[in-house]
Structures are given as structure tokens and as C-alpha cells.
Amino acid sequence: MKVKKIILFFSLWVANGLAFSQNNNLDSLQNLLMTVQQDTLKHTILMEIGNQQQKSNPDSALFYHTQSFELAKKISPPEGELLQAASLRNKGWDYALKGDYNKALNLFDKSIKITEKYIQNNDLEIVKKAIKIQAGCYSQIGICYFNLGNPKKALAYTNKSLSQNRRTQNKIGQAANFGNLGIFYAEQGEYPKALSNFYSSLKINEEINDKKCQADNLANIGSTYADIGENKKALFYFSKAQKIDKLINNKAGEASNLGNIGSIYNDMGDDNKALEFFFKALSIYNEIGNKNGQSSNLANIGNTYSNLGNLSKALEYSQKSLKISEEIGSMGNIAFNNSTLGVVYAKLKQHALAEHYLKRAEELNHDLGSIVRLKSDYKGLAELYEQTEKHKLALSYYKKFVQLEDSIKSEDNYKAGLQQEIKYEYEKQAAIDSIANAKELEIKEIEIAKQQTEIKAKRNQQYALYSGLALVLIFSAVMYNRYRVTKKQKHIIEIQKSETEKQKLLVEEKNKEISDSIIYAKRIQEAILPSRYSLTEHLKNGFVLYKPKDIVSGDFYWLEKYNESIYFAAADCTGHGVPGAMVSVVCANALSKALLEENQTETGELLDRTRELVVERFTKNDENVKDGMDISLCRISNNQLQWSGANNPLWIIRKNSNEVEEIKGNKQPIGKSDSSQPFTSHEVELTTGDTIYIFTDGFADQFGGEKGKKFMYKQLKELFLAINHLKMDEQREKLNQAFINWQGSQEQVDDVCIIGVRV
């Protein structure tokens, strides 16, 4: 029995910058709780203490989450009511872990009702918090319905959660939703959909570097491949997941994967090797007190002893597992144990007991929608009725078994699984090397077509066999014939898949080399940007909003102190990504050289000399390179501003003014052009309270909003006027949030750089 892992996420926001890691043990949290005075911080600590005890002691978790709920009542709304909703959500999950799903669902419903009134709030942060809590509730409601054997509602609520998490761009929540959808689809035998969701979850977890959830998804992918009979591939993914869990000291995950590896060795016929892994897993589960894990591995050990013919031990371990499963209400494990006990009693010739347990297993697995386990029940019943000479029933159940076997291992499932894996691996490469990606994908499609032809031939032979199943006497001959044909075809497929694995390894190696190069390019570019210390020291009342489109950027910000003046600029180089970053290094070095080494202190002359250096750099060979940059450059000394611009403007908002004063730059770039003119130096007298803004075109050119249009400079001016009264760090946050809200689900089209300074 392979175990798939439900993936959870909690969306409690952390108050006043207080955050917790897994290294905070309960004692230190308890001590901290005694010293903290602020109610919102106390609420956060109570929630964290409860969260850390949920798996090991749900009753204790419930106590702390109830305390957090009572404390939240003392905090004024909206914060207090949203904290109440978060506490109710976590209390709901406490009850779910105790198996009281009705009470859990009731608490989730109460939590959602509290958040409903804040969904249309004018404060975007309040809306975001409410949506996050709702998303968490919907996700956990989906899990409850899954455990209650209602896969339709499980899918519906999980998709609701996914929709909410997309609204808030909550990557952690989206990854959890995709992972759980994969589990729900896999349990219903919809393996293409299951693999698609698992790979989507894995991709996000790799982006956000969530090692634990990466391991969970790798294990779920392995379990799905095991369900369709791809044992070598399943073993690869389980082993990969187990190594990650061991690396991050995730005992529960490590034990789960050891148990899954044992199940694969079961399927491959190596029962002694399987027992070795099951006992390793059981030892860890006993150490951490995980009853569900204990139940699953005891069940697997009982089933393996049954395969080995040690029926007394098979009964002993299966009964132990069944007892724990019934205590914790694990319907899947109860069904599996009934199935094992039925097979064992059949071997002991206790046919009445065997039929009782197998029929019970069939009923439970039918209600749970688990076709993989249902297939085993059909096989067990077919063999039992053959023993008892109930030939019609034997034939009926054997047909059901063969039908599910063919459905699970059909060419559609195999092809879909291979395509999902190819899609996942190639999407990582496509962003960097689309030509190689297309070529490799073409090779895989040719291989899939070949494999599909072979498997279709197999199905035609299977249909021919059905006509001969009328006589029970040829039952064994048919089984042997099917086994022989399948083994021959599987050998052919294994050879082809081996070639596919080689190609995949080449792609992974190429992808790593290119990724490492881009990350190194990022380090080089970061080295030319002013440090946080420089920005804080020289622009005491200012901000920088810097949002690269890709890992590296064509935009950059520049700052130098020379004599008693501060020079700073926002620049937009040709292109973005790696080409833009290369140009930005050349342009930034030219600016610094012209100022610090050649003493060009006038902003216009500084841009003139920078242009000469850039053109000189790009025309060293015969290539006609026209790369360069647009820039807005400032020099501030006391309250005197000197400014020059190449295509980009300067905006000034005077103190207590409701207008934006604009000075336009020269209509020419820093770079090679047909008619270059000297850049103009503008002198501007500033007074205390005046604010200046310089920027690149990335913000104004971003597509988004309800109609998918550009933000435009007119709207950007209105935004600056609306936030000008705020402190500079608050202005930065408002600008960032406005960009995120406008962008929505659209892709960022260009790099963004904005500098604001208040005199």
C-alpha cells in the first residue's frame, strides 16, 4: 500500500514582524508567551504553539487555538475579527485530525463567514488577509470531504482554494492545492490529471525552495507511477524524496518514503527486501508517535508476511494495524487490512471469514473511490470463489479485475504520465534554451508513438482473450499467456525508456550549467548596484523600488558621493534579462569612470562623456552595435538640484502642491545615434518638503487592470500625487502594491526602477 501525502498550508499572517521557524521549541515559545504584553503578538505565539502540536497532540493544539480565539475577541476589528477567523480555521483542523469532520466543517464555515464582510474592504491589505484565511479553510474543507469519501466535494473546495490563492499570488497555497488535487485525482484513477497537478505543485515548490513539499510531491509522483505499474520510475522518485526528507530531518516524510519503497519491492516480488524497509519505517513512526504511519506499515508488514506464507504473523500484524486504524478512523487503512485478512483466511481455508473481510474491503474501497485497492479486492474474491468452486462468481470478479487492470495500465495513462514528466522537465529548460527544448520534445513524441503502437497491439490481444473466458478450466492458461505477452512488451518499453532517461539527464545537466551562469551574472550585476548602506546613508529620506523582470535586469540604479554632492540616477538599458544586464554593467561603469576618474561634475557633461565611453566600448570591432540606455540623472547639494535626462523625465511635487512639475530630458539615448547633441543641465531650486521622482518606463508600460491595458504615465502621476503625503518607505510599499494589483495574472513586461527623494 503506497501512501500519498496530503499537503497543507496555513495562512496566518505574522504580526509586527514577529516570525517563527521550526527551530523554536515549545519551551522557548512558552517562555516568550509569558514576557510578551501586546495582544496581537500573544495571539501569534498561541497559534504557533498550537500548530506545532497538531500532529502529535491535537487536544493540546485545540487548547491553545481556543485561547488564541478568546484573546482575538479583545482586539478591535478588523484585525481582531480576522484573527478570530484564523483561530477558528486552525481549531477546525484540530478537530479534523481527531476525526471529528462534522465539527471541523462547522468551524471552517464560521471562519469563512467572518471573512466575507472584509472581501470588499477599501484596504487592500485587509482584503488580502481575508482571502488568505478563506483559501486555507477551503483547502482543509476539501481534505475533510476526501477523508469522508466524497471526492467530488473535495475537488470543488480545493479548486475554490486555488482560485483564492491565485488572487493573492500565494505560491505556497497554490502548490498545496495542486498537490492535493493530484491526490484526489489519483485515488479516482485519473492518473493524467494527477500527474499534471503533482508536477505543477513540484515546479512551484522548486521556485520557492520548499524542500519538504518538494519531497512530498516527488513521493506522490512515485506513488502514482507505482499505481500504473511503472515500478522502476516509482522507486526513483521515492528514493529522491527520501533523500530530501533525510537531509531536512523530516522524520515523518523519511518514514513514509521508506514504507513506499518497501511497497515497490513488494510489487517487484522481493518481499524480504520489502520487510526490511517496512520495519525501518515502522521504527521511525514509533519514535515520533505517528499512529497513521504505524497503522500503514503494520498493514504492509501483515500483507508481506501473507505473500511469504507466514500466515500467523500476517494475521498478527494485520489485526494490530486494524485496531489502530479503527481508533484514528483511517478508512483507507481499514479497507486495506480487511483485504489482507480476507486473503490470509482464504489461504487458511476459512472461506466464510475470507469472504466477510474481502466483501467489507470491496465495499469500503468502492465508497472511497480507490480503484487501485478495489482491483486487489476483485482479484482476491475471484481466487476465493475459484477455491470454493463458485465458478460464475469467480469469472465475474476476474473480469472486473482485468477491466480495472487494463484501465490503470492503459496506454493513455502511460503516455500521459510520460508527457507530464517531459513537460515538467522541459518547462524548466524552455525559459533558457527553447530550441534545444523543441528538439528534445520531438524525440520524446516519436518514442511515445512507438510505445503506443506496441501497447495497442497488447490490447487487441487482450480483447481476443476475453472470448475464451467462458470456461473456468482455461483460467490458468489465460493468466499465463497474458503474463508472457506483457513481459515481452515491457522489456521493449524498458529499453526505450532507458534512452529517454539518458536524454533527460543531458537536459538536466545543460539546465544546471545555464542556471548557474545566470545566477553568477546576477551576482556581478548586484556588485555594481549601490549597497543598502550607501542608499540609507546618502538618501536618508528616499526610497528605491527595483523589480527586475527576470533574474537579471536591464534597469539599474546608480549612486555616488563626489565632493559634497550626491549623484544618483535611474537608468533603462537596451533589452532585459541577460543581454540587458550586460549592457547595464557597461553603462554603470562608464558613469562612475566619467565622474570619479575624469571629474565630469556637471550632469549634462557627465552624460556627454558617458555616451562617448559607451559608444567607444560598443564599437571596438566591426559590429554595428546600437545598444545604450535612457537615464534620469540628479546631483543634489544642499537644496540645489542639477538634473539631466536622456529620453526620461524628472518629476517634482512641491510641498502642499496638487500638481506634478515635469522637466523633460533630451530626446536622445546614451549610445550611438544619427544626430547626437550635448545634454542639457537643468538647475532647480528646491525647498524643504519638495519631493523628486526619477524612473524608467517599466511601471507605466505594464499591462493589467480589468481591460488588460497599459498603466500609462497619466495614471502614474495621479498615483504619485495620491501618496505624496506619506513617508517615503510607505510610498514605496504603496507603489509596489499598486503594481502587483494592476499586473494581476499578467506577465511583467519590463524591468521597473523608481527613485523618490524628499528634501
Radius of gyration: 32 Å
Structural class: alpha+beta
> For the report, how would you describe the main beta sheet?
5 strands, antiparallel
- Unreliable segments of 5+ consecutive residues: 2-23, 429-444, 463-470
Percent of residues in helices: 55-70%
Distance between the termini: 69 Å
Any idea what the shape is? elongated
Supply the number of helical segments: 27
Strand order of the largest sheet: 1-12-9-6-7
Average pLDDT, rounded to a whole number, is 82
How many strands in all? 12
Strand content range: 5-15%
Would you summarize the structure shown here?
By secondary structure, this protein is α+β, with helices and mostly antiparallel strands.
Which labels suit this protein?
759 residues, alpha+beta, 5-stranded antiparallel beta sheet, 27 helices, 12 strands, elongated, disordered N terminus
Task: Tell me what the structure shows.
With 759 residues, the chain is α+β, with helices and mostly antiparallel strands. The chain contains 27 helices and 12 strands. The strands form 3 sheets. A 5-stranded antiparallel β-sheet has the order 1-12-9-6-7, with helices on one face. Strands 2-3-4-5-8 form a 5-stranded antiparallel β-sheet, sandwiched between helices. Strand 6 and strand 7 form a beta hairpin. Helix 4 (79-97) runs parallel beside helix 6 (124-147), helix 8 (171-187) runs parallel beside helix 10 (211-227) and helix 10 (211-227) runs parallel beside helix 12. The model is unreliable at 2-23, 429-444 and 463-470 (pLDDT under 50).
